[in-house]
Design brief:
By secondary structure, the chain is α/β, with parallel strands linked by helices.
Length: 489
């Protein structure tokens, strides 16, 4: 039987639920939005009205189109109003007891042919399905925040999902203008499993004072081209949601990198949940860049390492003298590895600063335990003169960007090797779900498998974190001289 989805219910009209209701209404479906009480219902209506008002103001919708979209949505506090819906999407908080209770009610209320979907970020769809008398008609439909913008929908089928239903739900996602990626039921699915481990890692690095919040965000945004840095994104997702997703991931994986960073627990307990509560990692000031520094108070510089000539020429053109390391006011050691060993060989190790150029917008400025604050300030200024954003960090393996990026790429290789999802689906999921400029396998191709494998080895040697060890598949590909995972037979 091919179903026609014309009338859909959305239960829970928070940020995600309201966004999903908007997507469905824009796609031409009649939508019934359900909330627990009148105040929450009004907030949900408000989300929809303001989101479509913004689209109107930007000229993306005409007033008539906006009215048509809003006219397709009705609001109620009674689940009974979902009796004749063809599809109901649940978007309530990530608490299994709440979801189980809701699905028991929906199963009783909705017509026998209705499909019940959960927008859960990480909870077991199978467990939710098993609370109903129609487990074959229960799927995951996982949207991404902001739902009207992000193009991905993960469609989750379980071992008991009826044959063909996932394809029908995927077809609906396409009709709504989204790209579906269909996968089985594992904690975190594709995106959250890869994304949350990376976001949590950023929080762990922040707590270890490797770099600042703004430094890490700038590094990932400008250095890798991600639309948002990890802390701005955690605030968008919600720190409570992030904490819950990580807890579920940890329960399944027992991987320490999924254990929520203590700072997340602290912020959540303090009621700082991110954008939805008015503050999280950022509290009103917004993600921004630091003000430009004045001209550095140094006369002579020494530049060492690969690419030294080019940088030295740039600094000479800006009026700085180049000198041998023994005589220079500051020594810039271009390196992708820690520089303390180099520093101790100099007569004045306090003048040496590690410099790692990331893309053409960022330079990581690494200070060793011996580096003076004057040298760091001077190099910060020199970096700005070269047109890059300086990201100050400690002298640790792979500094900031690669330390965050390589384990994420390693996780993607492990996911591929586990057979959970293929190269194209994983790449598409990260690009369309999170706005990444490239998928993990595209990034691996661009960086080179060997570079990433060697970087992971360095990270493992430094932090002894078991999951930083290169995935066996990655190691084997490098050993076999394979240049791209796509070349696998
Ligand atoms: N609702 C509707 N539309 C919105 C919106 C919202 N909340 N926020 C932004 N938009 C629209 C804007 O109107 C604009 O539309 P236009 O291009 O048609 O004019 C467009 O999105 C771009 O917005 P802005 O110009 O204001 O801002 P940016 O260019 O900085 O983009 C962003 C904002 C789309 C949020 C971008 O920063 C981004 O892609 N960030 C990554 C978001 C992400 O990773 N989401 C996934 C999180 S994981 C998740 O949700 C899963 C869960 O289970 C945890």
């Amino acid at each position: 039987m091919t179903r026609s989805f014309e009338k859909a219910g959305v239960v829970g009209l928070g940020t995600m639920g309201a966004g999903i209701a908007e997507v469905l209404a824009r796609g031409g479906l009649a939508v019934i939005g359900v909330e627990a009480d009148p105040a929450a219902l009004e907030r949900g209506r408000g989300h929809l009205e303001s989101s479509t008002a913004k689209a109107l103001a930007k000229g993306k919708l005409s007033e008539a189109e906006r009215m048509e979209i809003l006219g397709r949505v009705s609001f109620t506090t009674s689940l009974e109003d979902l009796a004749d819906a063809d599809l109901v999407i649940e978007a309530i908080p990530e608490v299994m007891e709440f979801k189980r209770a809701l699905f028991t009610d929906l199963d009783r209320i909705c017509k026998p042919s209705a499909v019940l979907a959960t927008n859960t970020s990480s909870l077991s769809v199978t467990e939710i399905a098993a609370t109903t008398t129609r487990p074959g008609q229960v799927v995951g439909m996982h949207f991404f925040n902001p739902a009207p913008v992000m193009k991905l929908v993960e469609v989750i089928h379980t071992v008991i999902t009826e044959d063909g239903l996932a394809e029908e739900v995927a077809a609906l996602a396409r009709r709504l203008g989204k790209t579906p990626v269909t996968v089985g039921d594992r904690a975190g699915f594709v995106v959250n499993r890869l994304l949350l481990a990376y976001l949590n890692h950023a929080a762990v690095l922040l707590e270890s004072c490797l770099a600042t919040r703004d430094g890490i965000d700038a590094a990932m945004r400008l250095g890798v081209g991600l639309p948002m840095g990890p802390f701005a994104l955690l605030d968008l997702i919600g720190l409570d949601t992030s904490y819950e997703v990580l807890s579920v991931l940890f329960q399944e994986s027992r991987d320490r990198r999924h254990a929520p960073a203590p700072i997340l627990r602290e912020l959540v307990t303090a009621g700082l949940l991110g954008r939805k509560s008015g503050g999280g990692f950022y509290r009103g000031e917004g993600a921004g860049s630091s003000p430009p520094a004045g001209k550095p108070s140094v006369n002579s510089v020494a530049v060492l390492g690969e690419g030294a000539e080019e940088l030295a020429a740039q600094l000479s053109a800006a009026g700085f003298k180049t000198a041998p390391p023994e005589d220079a006011d500051v020594v810039l050691a271009l390196s992708r590895n820690p520089v303390v060993e180099l520093a101790v060989k100099l007569p004045s190790p306090e003048r040496l600063v590690g410099l790692h150029l990331v893309g053409d917008k960022v330079a990581e400025v690494a200070s060793t335990v011996l580096t003076s604050s004057e040298a760091v300030r001077a190099v910060e200024g020199l970096v700005r003169i070269t047109g890059r954003t300086p990201v100050l960090c400690k002298d640790r393996a792979e500094f900031v960007v690669d330390a965050l990026l390589y384990p994420y790429l390693n996780d993607a290789v492990r996911m591929l090797d586990s057979g959970y999802a293929g190269v194209e689906d994983i790449d598409a999921a990260m690009k369309l779900g999170c706005g990444y400029p490239a998928g993990p396998f595209e990034m691996l191709d661009e960086l080179g498998l060997k570079t990433v494998r060697d970087g992971l080895r360095a990270l493992y040697a430094e932090y002894r974190e078991p999951s930083f060890a290169p995935a066996p598949l990655l190691d084997q590909l490098v050993t076999a001289g394979v240049r791209s995972i796509r070349d696998l037979p």
